[in-house]
Design goal:
- By secondary structure, the protein is α+β, with helices and mostly antiparallel strands.
- The chain is built from 14 helices and 14 strands.
- The strands form two sheets. A seven-stranded antiparallel sheet has the order 1-4-13-6-7-8-9, with no helix packed on it.
- Strand 7 and strand 8 (147-149) form a beta hairpin.
Length: 472
């Protein structure tokens, strides 16, 4: 797809660029920000969230338990007399937020005298001499009675008891906002997660000789977490699939997308396909999307797009000068800048570095010092430093997606010359109807995550599309 949705529709950078579409040149600053987003995607790494790796020996009920040297086992060493002499220990880090689930397990080495072992989640401020679930902002699944405790002294029937030799797990499903617990690799049950903020995996022992080891993921879990996550995603997808959408509306969205980007041959093939289906697909009037605007200058846009995609930038500029001189009459416009950058990149691609330096001095030097252009000019020139620029951090410039980005900018510029469009309607040239719909979807998903305290997987449209494509 030529355009990906992003949560920051209005984005500013250190050089003053902004994607806030307005009239005139501001409309096309959107494409400069897309170049910068490509840079960010190329350097994208993991969220950097730390996960629990061991037990916290500092914040624990140290008078009632001992933690092994590897900080992955805990044993009760006292004689319990009342409800305030529990041996409790939290993980060294809270459960990370930016994933569909978080999960950990304990193995009961010894159930001790009473088997009063518990697994659960607590806040950092939890009273470390009480069982998880006995105090507010905590939740615990207890082994002696199989009850679940949620911030009260009274538990509720939940699952089986567990004892020596059992493996018990506790997890958080951020998608459904639920806690879930397992025993020996099988799901026991789930309950609503009504505690906000960071939560720490927590283990408690409360009778003599009770001992458990903790697995934060260093070794294989007894429970199939990946399978559970796949099942949860399938449930969500099945719910989405049940939503009824008129099939002809979907075809109309696809067709206007193809028209918007000038894919004339594909449009023709698409039309033939829709007419030869049984029964033929007809676009009803109430679901019709105006195709006239998307069809404007279709042949010209198709021709120039093809030239840019083949790296024939001089030919593309020549066509623009012949057909739409108003687009290139301002030599310092965003569209001209992107085309000159692409010409420079094409020279680097084929190893014509000396010619590239000359071209850069002649054309790109004009943009040095201008807010919004400076950083991209510097990145382009930096390609000359690398022996294999395609393998460098700036290698995204040499990918086909960069050509597509430039072609999209030229395409939008030609659409903006449509005499039937008013100035206030020019921003619609940036995106097709389908892309506008996907951008709205992205905003809704991000808002939903925000309402969950920014917990769960960060919504990335291209990941969803790639996963769905693989699934099918």
């Amino acid at each position: 797809m030529n355009s990906t949705a992003n949560s920051d529709d209005v984005r500013r950078n250190e050089n003053g660029g902004t994607s806030d579409a307005g009239n005139g040149q501001d409309l096309f600053l959107h494409f400069l920000d897309k170049v910068r987003l490509s840079r960010g995607d190329a350097m994208e790494e993991s969220e950097g969230e730390e996960s629990p790796t061991e037990l916290n020996t500092i914040n624990s009920a140290g008078g009632f338990l001992i933690v092994s040297p590897d900080k992955l086992s805990v044993k009760y060493t006292n004689t319990n007399l009342h409800g305030h002499d529990v041996g409790v220990v939290q993980a060294n880090k809270p459960a990370p937020f930016n994933s569909l689930t978080y999960y950990f397990e304990i193995f009961v080495k010894n159930a001790g005298v009473k088997g009063q072992i518990a697994i659960g989640f607590t806040k950092e401020s939890f009273k470390m001499r009480r069982q998880p679930g006995w105090e507010v902002n905590s939740c615990g699944y207890h082994g002696d009675d199989g009850y679940l405790y949620r911030g009260k002294g009274i538990g509720e029937a939940f699952g089986p008891t567990y004892t020596t030799g059992d493996t018990v797990g506790g997890g958080i499903n951020y998608g459904s906002q639920e806690f879930f617990f397992t025993k020996n690799g099988a799901l026991v049950g789930k309950i609503p997660k009504d505690i906000k903020g960071h939560l720490f995996p927590t283990v408690a022992v409360h009778s003599q000789n009770e001992e458990v080891s903790v697995n934060f993921g260093k070794t294989k879990f007894a429970f199939d977490v990946k399978g559970y996550e796949a099942s949860e995603r399938n449930k969500r997808q099945m719910a989405i699939d049940k939503i009824s959408i008129p099939p002809n509306l979907g075809y109309a969205l696809v067709k206007t997308y193809l028209l918007h980007y000038g894919y004339e041959e594909t449009v023709n093939a698409f039309n033939v396909a829709t007419e030869t289906t049984v029964p033929p697909i007809r676009i009803s009037q109430e679901n019709a999307i105006d195709e006239d605007d998307s069809s404007y200058a279709l042949y010209h846009r198709k021709t120039i797009r093809q030239l840019v995609r083949e790296g024939e930038i001089n030919a593309a500029l020549a066509r623009l000068r012949d057909w739409y001189p108003q687009i290139v009459q301002d030599e310092k416009s965003v569209v001209c800048f992107l085309l000159h950058c692409q010409k420079f990149i094409e020279l680097v691609r084929v190893g014509k570095l000396e010619e590239g330096v000359k071209y850069g001095r002649l054309e790109l030097a004009k943009f040095v010092g201008f807010p919004g252009f400076q950083d991209i000019v510097e990145d382009c020139f930096a390609l000359l430093v690398y022996r294999k620029p395609e393998e460098s951090s700036l290698g995204y410039f040499l990918e086909d997606s960069q050509r597509e980005l430039v072609a999209d900018a030229v395409n939008a510029a030609i659409l903006s010359t449509n005499p039937n469009k008013k100035d206030e309607q020019k921003s619609c040239h940036l995106h097709s109807h389908l892309e506008i719909l996907l951008r709205q979807l992205t905003v809704c998903c991000l808002e939903r995550r925000s309402l969950n305290g920014n917990q769960g997987e960060t919504f990335r449209l291209h990941h969803v599309l790639n996963n769905n494509s693989t699934r099918r």
